Amino acid sequence: MTMKSCKASCSQHWSLLLLFHQRPVFLMVFLVVLLVVPIVDAFDIQFRSATPQDINLARRLILQAKMNPLSITAKHLLVAYNYDAVGDNSCDNDNYIKNHQLLGFGQIRPLSLEYSELASLYVIPNARHQGVATALTQELLQRHYCQQQKQHENPAAAAATPSTICLLTLKPTMPLYQKFGFRQVFFPNDADAVAEGDDNGNDVQFNSSSMLPQAIQMEYKAGQFLSKFLGNELVCMELKKEYS
To answer: Who's near 103: CB < 8 A, 6+ residues apart?
Structure first.
């Protein structure tokens, strides 16, 4: 560093210190930004189909997260990763995640002629709060609707991909799905369901038990009990897309 550049750098530092001394509010804002805004690693989120080893790992992680691992299949599971590094194919979870740069996974699977389910969405703890869940959800929806659009254009396969996507999630994660257009579905016996709307003034969408697939109904009822026991609340959401 030259003497000139050193003097310029010192001058900038002294100016910043003088600003913080004269206007303490700027110092407070600066510190809050440092504490609140996460420092994230820069990476490009990419996607690929799941391998048999991905399936085994996903089932273990989903079970550890107290979620249902039974529906995970290679046909539907989508894996998010940083880059497809070639490494040791050890069955050890930590080594496999590190060597293959796994970020998370999720799936949309058909349940009936009318419904698909967005399920098994999971982000590796070290990759959370970096947009992985949002990117993964967006990619899953784009692939689903792309397939649906192609089949809609073919009358012989118009009903091959269901038009409504439902999901079960914990209440704190609802904002993730709401920004994609998902709305909470209230069952008639839900304590929070009211005729005028929910606590936030949003329209309540009642869905009778006969409209949702049987698998979702059963999982919702069982999950409600378990989630309340663990101190949380399970909610059902759905997203409808109409084609003209």
So the answer is: 43, 45, 80, 81, 82, 123, 124, 127, 132, 136
